[in-house]
From TrEMBL:
This is V-type proton ATPase subunit a. Its main location: membrane. InterPro entries: V-ATPase_116kDa_su, V-type_ATPase_116kDa_su_euka. Keywords: Coiled coil, Hydrogen ion transport, Ion transport, Membrane, Transmembrane, Transmembrane helix, Transport. GO terms for cellular component: proton-transporting V-type ATPase, V0 domain; vacuolar proton-transporting V-type ATPase complex. It comes from the Eukaryota. Essential component of the vacuolar proton pump (V-ATPase), a multimeric enzyme that catalyzes the translocation of protons across the membranes. Required for assembly and activity of the V-ATPase. Residues 112-139 form a coiled coil. Residues 634-657 are annotated as: Disordered. It comes from Paramecium primaurelia. The chain crosses the membrane at residues 390-414, 426-448, 503-521, 533-556, 599-618.
């Protein structure tokens, strides 16, 4: 099972002649199984062989983005690529394909830029004509006896256009520089102006009357220039004004016609770019092809070039080498003059990457694990168990049949196609997780017998109400969950409090024990028998003999019938006495006799005490003995020399093909060269586990706390809104329920379905990461990053 442990990885040396580098990398890109190792991760991209090609690809992608922006401005829809691989196979070319794409895209971008410049100049010309026309019209309307009298008195006039939003600022500045010795008239222009950025703005005409004077005139002119406005001369006679207006109106009509013609030409050109040629629009097709070229050259830059040969190291999942070799042979068979690349299996000298085959169901659960850390190669992946344990833990805290059903219905909706097009599209990757959380919330709600804070009598209560007191029926056991009679009892909160607390401890100890068992499987898989006997077995015994025994006492107490509840022993008191008074006979034993219980507890306590020094000192002692008997020997490097002759490299590879493959050997991560370092490490591990057993068990009590808080909040919302009206019944009760229901629904959705669900989710993350995974999970691996064209996605997928 690939999700249980990482796929088996194989280490290969890759050699590619420069003449066929593009073709080989293009062939490998269709396989989702090649992880290329960067030969020098510290080398800047600018110093790599194909950095110029990557830069050119970025420039072309920038031009494509500019074209895409124009299409969005003109509100032209385009079709995204549903299948990137299918498109790349249809448009599969040669290493010269990028030059062709670059020329085609640059020509289209330049044509559009030229048309856009023409459009901008026409728009500016139209705005200038309109401003001049508006100035003349307002000036004519303002011509009266007062203005003529003002000109006779020696006042000068200046007319122009400013933005409406600058009106107050313009008036204030003019007033200050002229010290109030000026008259300002502002007239709004009704029709808005379109600027270069295609935004509409409101403008207004200003007319200034001021005394004659060169200094004042220069100041006013500088202010007008600072507002980037045009000044217009007004003819003195009415006939000249009329002629100017007629001429400007004709120019405005001509500018409008040219403007509409240019816009239609640009729109038609962009429509052509949005046409579907293969399986998507031309612009989207170009973006994917150029992105592919950039992706190919960036991965080719990860190889080391010596003379005219590229060589590097790659990781392949087991069994993929035959497919790769066959594809390279086919590449050489299609073109005999084209030298083919070669791969040769090498001895593994470093830790392989971790690779899992994921799908839409397992992806969100694996992301939870990867957020904490990437699994070490070949260690057990917590993502497999997380599929069940994580939704179950959330369901324990969110346990309610009604709320769980709502969440389950939401999960079902997210699995439909309509959800991908709605505002909830961001939750679609989490759809199966939400579905499972809703299912387990319903399951735990049935155990708690809680439906929106109401107990359900599904199987018939085992209690009869006689004289306001409950009497239990003989030989009656409620079939599933809590008996509904507890929902109306006076000690309902005390009972549920005790039940959920014990249930939380049982779940926590079971979860941690499962984690320790997984650690044992890891040690056996890595043939690390020292950790198996010196860590796994003592840790397993310590946890089961302490808190495992406490869980056993809880079950034993539940299965024992006491005539008087006062005679029932306290499990907490029993555990405390087991440590503080181990030789005393319990006053209230849970076993048949106190002596038997004391004897069993002495054995368990002895095992617990012995496990601590075993974890602390045995592993350093064994390490010291092994170091004396087997001194460390360094394995010689098998990485080829960077300065080696390519022909010699090829001959060596052919020579190695005739030799049997060396056995794969991976050095463990947890080896220490110094015994002092190991003693400190083992001391920390022992103290952390012993103290963590107590703190981690207490941490699982959050299951009890949040479950109790959820049920109490639901009860408060129900009692404060609907409970009284439902109990009243009749017409007024129905009206009151209808009136109060929106408040109940909003409180339930906002507080319980959103805030409380998020809180339960975060607490379950804490239990998953800290309490569970810390028992076995190293999280020091790195992901397998396949060189594959499937990593190239369309804009729609990126959004």
């Amino acid at each position: 099972m690939s999700l249980f442990r990482s796929e088996q990885m194989e280490f290969y040396n890759l050699v590619i002649p420069r003449e066929s580098a593009w073709d080989v990398m293009n062939t490998l890109g269709y396989f989702d199984s090649v992880h290329i190792i960067d030969h020098d991760a510290t080398l800047p991209q600018i110093n790599r062989p194909f950095s110029n090609y990557v830069k050119r690809c970025d420039d072309v992608l920038q031009k494509i983005e500019q074209i895409d922006d124009e299409m969005r401005n003109f509100k032209i829809e385009k079709k995204y690529c549903p299948d990137v691989i299918d498109l790349l196979k249809k448009r599969n070319g040669s290493h010269k394909q990028f030059e062709e794409l670059e020329q085609e895209i640059c020509k289209v971008a330049d044509d559009l830029e030229h048309q856009q410049q023409t459009l901008t100049s026409l728009q500016e010309k139209k705005n200038t004509i309109r401003e001049n026309l508006e100035v003349l019209r307002n000036a004519v309307a303002f011509q009266n006896e007062d203005s003529e009298e003002a000109s006779l008195l020696g006042f000068q006039k200046m007319v122009g256009v400013i933005l409406k939003e600058d009106e107050l600022r313009f008036k204030r500045i003019i007033f200050r520089i002229t010290k109030g010795n000026i008259h300002v008239e502002i007239m709004d222009i009704q029709e808005q102006f379109i600027q270069q950025d295609r935004k509409s703005v409101q403008k207004c005409v200003f007319m200034l009357f001021y005394p004659c004077g060169d200094l004042t005139q220069k100041k006013i002119q500088r202010v007008i220039e600072s507002f980037s406005n045009n000044k217009f001369d007004i003819p003195t006679s009415s006939e000249q004004q009329a002629q100017r207006i007629t001429m400007l109106e004709n120019q405005l009509n001509e500018a409008d016609q040219l403007l509409h013609l240019t816009i239609s030409q640009i729109n038609k050109r962009l429509q052509d770019l949005s046409e579907v040629k293969h399986n998507c629009s031309w612009i989207e097709e170009m973006r994917i092809l150029v992105t592919k070229e950039k992706y190919l050259y960036m991965n080719l830059n990860m190889l080391n070039m010596t003379n005219s040969v590229f060589h590097g190291q790659i990781w392949l999942p087991q069994g993929q080498d035959q497919k790769i070799q066959q594809a390279l042979r086919n590449l050489h068979g299609n073109d005999k003059q084209l030298p083919s690349g070669q791969i040769q299996e090498q001895q593994i000298q470093s830790t392989p990457p971790t690779y899992y085959k994921l799908n839409s169901f397992t992806y969100p659960f694996q992301e939870i694990v990867n957020t904490y850390g990437i699994p070490r190669y070949k260690e057990i992946n917590p993502g497999l168990s997380t599929i069940i344990t994580f939704p179950f833990l959330v369901g324990v805290m969110f346990g309610d049949v009604g709320h769980g059903l709502l969440l389950f219905v939401c999960g079902l909706y997210l699995t439909t196609e309509d959800a991908k097009k709605s505002i909830f599209s961001g939750l679609v990757p989490m759809r199966y997780m939400i579905l499972l959380i809703g299912f387990f919330a319903c399951y735990n709600g049935l155990i708690y017998n809680d439906f929106l804070s109401i107990s359900l009598n599904l199987f018939g209560s085992c209690y009869n109400l006689v004289d306001d007191e409950y009497q239990i029926k003989e030989d009656c056991v409620y079939k599933f969950g809590i008996d509904p009679a507890w929902g109306s009892s006076t000690n309902q909160l005390t009972f549920m409090n005790s039940f959920k607390m014990k249930l939380a401890v049982i779940i926590g100890v079971t979860h941690m024990t499962f984690g320790i068992i997984l650690k044992g499987f890891n040690t056996l898989n890595f043939n690390n028998y020292t950790d198996f006997f010196c860590e796994f077995i003592p840790q397993f015994l310590l946890l089961t003999c302490s808190f495992g025994y406490m869980d056993f006492l809880l079950f034993l107490k539940w299965c024992t019938k006491f005539e008087d509840t006062k005679d029932a022993p306290s499990v907490i008191t029993t555990m405390i006495d087991m440590v503080l008074r181990p030789f005393d006979v319990p006053e209230k034993p849970l076993f048949e006799s106190g002596e038997q219980q004391r004897f069993i507890q002495l054995i368990l306590l002895t095992i617990i005490i012995l496990c601590i020094p075993i974890m602390l000192i045995t592993k350093p002692l064994i390490f010291n003995l092994n170091k004396k008997n087997h001194p460390y020997q360094q394995i010689p490097s098998q990485v080829p020399d960077d300065d080696a002759n390519p022909e010699q490299l090829q001959n060596d590879m052919q020579k190695d093909q005739s030799q049997p493959h060396s056995k794969v050997c991976i050095q463990q991560h947890n080896q220490h060269d110094d015994i002092g370092e190991l003693i400190v490490h083992q001391s920390i591990e022992t103290i952390e586990f012993v103290l963590g057993s107590v703190s981690n068990t207490a941490s699982y009590l959050r299951l009890w706390a949040l479950s109790l808080a959820h049920s109490q909040l639901a009860e408060v919302f129900f009692s404060m809104t609907l409970a009284s009206h439902i109990g009243e019944g009749g017409f007024f009760g129905t009206i009151g329920s209808i009136v109060q229901f929106p408040g109940f629904a909003l409180a339930t959705f906002g507080v319980l379905m959103c805030m409380d669900l998020m809180e339960c989710f975060l607490h379950a993350l804490r239990l998953q990461w800290v309490e569970f995974q810390s028992k076995f999970y190293k999280a020091d691996g790195y992901l397998f990053k396949a060189y594959s064209f499937t990593n190239i996605k369309s804009n729609q997928q990126d959004d």
